Amino acid sequence: MKKIPVFVQIAFVALLSVSCGGNQPTVQNFDDVVAMRRSVRDYDASRSITQEEVMDLIKTAQEAPSWANQQPSKYYVAISPEKVAAVKELVGEGNKRNTAGAPVMIVSTYVKARSGFFRGNPANEIGDGWGAYDNGLSNAYLILKARERGFDTLIMGMRNSDELRKLLAIPDDECIMAVISLGYRASDPNRPERKATNDIVKFF
Ligand SMILES: Cc1cc2nc3c(=O)[nH]c(=O)nc-3n(C[C@H](O)[C@H](O)[C@H](O)COP(=O)(O)O)c2cc1C
């Protein structure tokens, strides 16, 4: 059999590693996606993400369950360099530094007085906490889908909601929750330790 020249072999391996997302191993099953998802605070500034790719993540987030299918979550996506930079100014110095190379910043909100409400009144003591709950569920779907696609995220609770509202024209009837950076990891983060499972569960 004819021998394949070394430079062709090298080109093939390089192509394969790029199509697998550089240092991002392609993850296939749910447990791998969960294990590989980490809060990423170091992004590769040379890699971008398209609007279509973000739309795919949001479509997955829409599959999350919500109170009476109220679907209270909304997403404001900063993808132009100017808006991305402006959102990064509003997440505090540490988060700004940690998301420096992220090409996309997503702000998640929920419409108030929908989830957990019945005919305009809170159905129980949690009130609008159910809107926050639903938004967290949607965001969990979004960040796991992102990882499955080879992207990385950081959820940020430290953010200036008043300034974000002005910057992105977010209506007053929406509660601003997390800012989520989206991009490609530049290095692999450690896994912060979890509590012992026995300490957080009781069976009856
Ligand atoms: C609601 C929420 C708010 C968070 N806010 C921040 C934040 O402002 N800055 C930050 O660096 N990490 C933030 N995190 C990330 C957590 O620190 C991280 O999820 C936790 O340490 C576990 O690490 P892991 O996500 O890599 O498993 C937040 C996470 C959540 C769910």
**What is the helix content?**
25-40%
CATH architecture: 3-Layer(aba) Sandwich
Q: State the end-to-end CA separation.
A: 67 Å
What name does CATH use for the topology? NADH Oxidase
Ligands bound, unique: flavin mononucleotide
Total strand segments = 6
- Within CATH, the superfamily carries the name NADH Oxidase
Which sequence of strands runs across the widest sheet?
Answer: 1-2-6-5
Structural class: alpha+beta
Strand content: 15-25%
How would you state the average pLDDT, rounded? 91
Tell me what the structure shows.
- With 204 residues, the protein is an alpha+beta fold.
- It has one domain: NADH Oxidase, CATH 3.40.109.
- 37% of the residues lie in helices and 16% in strands.
- The strands form 2 sheets. It has a 4-stranded antiparallel sheet, with helices on both faces.
- A hairpin with a 2-residue loop joins strand 3 and strand 4.
- The longest helix has 20 residues.
- The chain is globular and about 50 Å long.
- About 9% of the residues have low confidence.
- The site of flavin mononucleotide has 12 residues, from helix 5 and strand 5.
Tag the structure with descriptive keywords.
alpha+beta, 204 residues, globular, 4-stranded antiparallel beta sheet, NADH Oxidase, binds flavin mononucleotide, two-stranded antiparallel sheet
